[in-house]
Structures are given as structure tokens and as C-alpha cells.
Amino acid sequence: MGYLYDIWDDFLSLLFPRHCYACGNHLLRNENLICTHCYISIPRTNYHIIPDNPVEQLFWGRCPIYKAAAFSFYSKGSRIRKLIHNLKYRGIKDIGAELGRIYGQSLRSSGFTYGIDVIIPVPLHPSKQRKRGFNQSEYISMGLSEVTGLPLDLKSFTRIASSETQTKRSRYERWKNVEGIFAVTDYERLKGKHILLVDDVITTGSTLDACAGELLKIEDVKVSVVALAISVQ
Ligand SMILES: [Zn+2]
């Protein structure tokens, strides 16, 4: 039966070849979304095992983040950039979940997630979410939740206003621009919790800063941060 299934599977992949979303090469039967070569070649920051790493340093003097890390480096032509583009702009949501699972394994086995109570994705503005149809950080969070066993909370924290386009603004202007656009909707539920905030790419850190700033108003709360990538020049 397994043999027949394999033949059928090979036949289907001839008719409908699946491609790696990072390099475009054909995927083998046991590969999912990303080919083995790309999976191995994506550079890992390993920041989750490095105290005072560059992601943590980004928040120094701005926001008391408990610990922070990013999976890879976001740069022009990088595999992770291609994957995140396919996730966000072509709506291949499974990429978010798959990368979340891959990163979640490292976070769990290294002990990074020890003591964390709940996972919260950075919320998208409702109008943007309607337009895109989904929040990419939610899918990354689902993958993280699946392999770490940590619960996902999509209800207690929300976005209340849209930030204008950020690209032409200075770091200070961006920081000012995101202030006051996130809100906690259920203080009781998050009281005393260690929250893992999840984003796709960290650039200036201003969005995460604004989120953490709101979350840290909750009594006895700790906030840690992870993202799929940190932007590098
Ligand atoms: Zn590939």
C-alpha cells in the first residue's frame, strides 16, 4: 500500500511539482515548503543562547525587555527574506507556521522558552489584516506554540490605530509614530504572566517597543521578544 502511495505521490509531483519557497528548486517527497539545502543554509543568529545579544541591545535604554532573540538575518537576497516575502505578500501562510516550528524547536531545546507562560503575536491593524486576510505573526506564533506547547493568546492585546507608512521616517519619528497604538483588552488574564511577543522582522524595534510598553503596564508582567529575522545592512 505504501509503495502504491509513493508511486501515486511521485505521479502527482510530476503533474504538480512543488517548489522551494526560498530558492525555487523542486522539492523532494519528504520536503515541506523549504528544500533541505535552504533549510541548512539559512544562517542562524543563535542569539537565543547569547546573553546581551544585538536584539536585546536594541532595547537597552528604551524598554525593559526580559530576553530577546531572532532566528536569522534579514538582508537583500537572503533566503529568509524570500520566505518572509512569500509569506506576507503571496499569502503562503504555511511558511510562517513552518518557520515558527523550526525556530520553536531551538527555543525549546535551549531552554529559552522556560518560564514563558503565553505567546502573543504583534497585532496588525484590523484594516490591514482585512486587506491581507491574515496576520503573518499569528502564523509564526502558531508554529512556535505547536512545538513548545505554550498557549497562544490572540484576544487580550490589540491594535487600535494605524501607523502611517514608516519607511521615510527617522528612528525618533518612527518611535513617536507607534506610541499609543496598541492596547491591552484583558489585564486580568495577563496579570503576572511572562509574555513572549512575536514579530516577523525586527528593523528598528520601534513596533515591539510600543507593544512591550503597553504590556508592561500590566501588574507583575515580564515581556520577552522573538522574531524570524533581524534586519542587517
Ligand atoms: Zn531551496
Secondary-structure blueprint of this entry?
Layout: H1 2-15, H2 36-41, H3 54-59, E1 68-74, H4 79-89, H5 93-109, E2 118-121, H6 126-132, H7 136-148, E3 157-159, H8 171-178, E4 182-184, H9 187-190, E5 194-202, H10 206-215, E6 222-231
Parallel strand pairs: 1-6, 2-5, 5-6
Antiparallel strand pairs: 3-4
The chain binds zinc ion.
Protein traits:
single chain; 233 residues; alpha/beta; two-stranded antiparallel sheet
Radius of gyration: 19 Å
- Assembly of the depicted chains: single chain
The major beta sheet can be summarized as: 4 strands, parallel
Bound molecules: zinc ion
Global shape: globular
Intertermini distance = 52 Å
The count of strands amounts to 6
Low-confidence stretches: none
What is the number of helical segments per DSSP (H or I, 4+ residues)?
A: 10
Structural classification: alpha/beta
* Spatial order of the strands forming the largest sheet: 1-6-5-2
Q: Whole-number average pLDDT?
A: 90
Strand content: 15-25%
Give the SSE order as H and E letters.
Answer: HHHEHHEHHEHEHEHE
User: Which range best describes the helical content: under 10%, 10-25%, 25-40%, 40-55%, 55-70% or over 70%?
Assistant: 40-55%
Q: Can you offer a commentary on this structure?
A:
The protein has helices at residues 2-15, 36-41, 54-59, 79-89, 93-109, 126-132, 136-148, 171-178, 187-190, 206-215; strands spanning 68-74, 118-121, 157-159, 182-184, 194-202, 222-231. With 233 residues, the chain is of the alpha/beta class. The strands form two sheets. Strands 1-6-5-2 form a four-stranded parallel sheet, sandwiched between helices. A two-stranded antiparallel sheet has the order 3-4. Strand 5, helix 10 and strand 6 form a beta-alpha-beta unit. Helix 4 (79-89) packs across helix 5, helix 5 runs parallel beside helix 7 and helix 8 (171-178) packs parallel to helix 10 (206-215). The chain starts with a helix and ends with a strand. The model has no long low-confidence stretch (mean pLDDT 90). Bound molecules: zinc ion (ZN). The site of zinc ion has 7 residues, from helix 2.
